[in-house]
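Quick one - inputs below.
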Amino acid sequence: MNELIITLGALALSGALATIAGCAEDLESDVGSQSNPNSQVQLAPQMGNIHRYYNKAISGEPVSYGLYVAVAGGVAYSLMNFGVNPILSLIIGSGVAAFVHGAYAVSAYLGRIVGQSKNFGQPVYLDIIMSHLGPIVGHGFIAVFCMVLMAYLANTILGNPFPLPLIALIFGITVGSIGSSTGDVHYGAEREYQKYPFGGGVPVANHGDIDIKAEIGLRNSLDSSYFCSRLGGVLTGMCFGLIVFLDGWRGLIGNIIGKDTYTSSIIAIVVGLLIIAILTIVNRKIEVFAREKYGPYQ
Amino acid sequence: MSHGGGGHAAELFPEEQIFGVGIGLALIGCYLSHFLEPYGLSMLIGGLLVSAACVAGANTVRKVASYGLGTGVPSIGMLSLGMGTISAIAGVLIPKSFGLTSYTPYIAPILTLIISAIVGFIVGRLTVNPVGMKIPIMVRSMTFISIAGAMALLGFSAAYAGSLMPNIFVNNALNSGIMAVAFIVAGIAILHPFNACLGPDESHKRTLTLAVACGLLSWFIFSVIKLDLISIVISIVLWAIVYLKYVKMSFKDACCVLHTPEIPKKEE
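Output:
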């Protein structure tokens, strides 16, 4: 029974860590305009909009987060083998990952901006690099540390058979995918195309015609992060936390009720299908409610 | 094409030349990371030479991706290391299954190179025929990219494991999961330079400098993972030199570098 309580605790901690990691990851990608919004930022100077967004085209979010978390996991793994305290190893690993993140972030901004600077008159803004690098690396560090700690819990307490660096890589890809799929929805047309009427989508003719002015002064990517920290980041965190928690809970229920591997697997699958059914109904209700309240889609 | 890819800038060196030199150095690096391990120089010399494979791969990615791959640039980098992983593991394990275990260190790097070329060629043919990508240099580029990925993966894993003997290599690099780190680190080093620098004003010199910086950064990451202090110091210093060169080059190539929030006036 004692072991079960520790497993439950580790599962709850994993859910909490996933929530924080998802939130930090989404806000970090918003500061850098990574992933989906990036193509519009990239297109803007070619449409005559000289902007002050940060263009962090390291690669897609899943791949780049796979890199940071895998680096953190690899460094932590070798430090732990060396005899360093696990938590300290994880912190040092995340620190190395943050350094790598910063290096790639700056080279991505310089490369993408200079790649269309002379033809379209887009200047390199040094103050943007200086002011944005801190939030990018800081949010990245929080997300990477949470993910690598989660990988460590999965490896040591939850009984994941794979080695730490491999789990870290897979968890990094996961957090990047969640941040990209859930978080980017909240930073797209609503933010980059705020001057156009809401709900109209973005016609191809308007591509690249992004907002370059903020509430006060010229808009930069920190404004986007501020905007997204209200809903987008929080929802990303909740989404990822729920995935980790519900999925772990599903397996745990099976283990508690089931008598052998066969019955516990069947119970876990049934509980999983039940969760999917409930979520589908809830999603449908929310969509119908939103459509009735905020008018039909045109 | 939404990323504004395309447009061949003038090449500083021909692609074959960079590829040949890079893969040659990486091949030597794979051997040295096995044979220099008793002297503790496996990561220092082997890692440095293997990072040349990343440069070769990045240069080939630049060539094939300027046909307008756009968002496909990261995908092709991951594909490269995917093909490379199969080839590297096969290269180390095939001699063992033929009973040539004691000769593995001599055979494995060459065998990996040959297998990766075959895998790359097959994948290249598949992308042309059923998938239908109309890029004239696709088969050749896939072969090149596969070789670069395989050499980078085998080299970094061998430099970490310190041996190409199947039992030590599998134990130290594969079962510890360090190969997963090699997969993603080398993958980013191959895909990032062109993905970062693409655009109408892309220059080969800048992309190549960034590729070298990315290769050295990968070497730094593996030095840290191996906890090899001398390699850590030397790799970070070399990386800083090349990276600063890249930053200065970018400032020089930009139309202007501003320190304040202002939009330059358009000249009509």
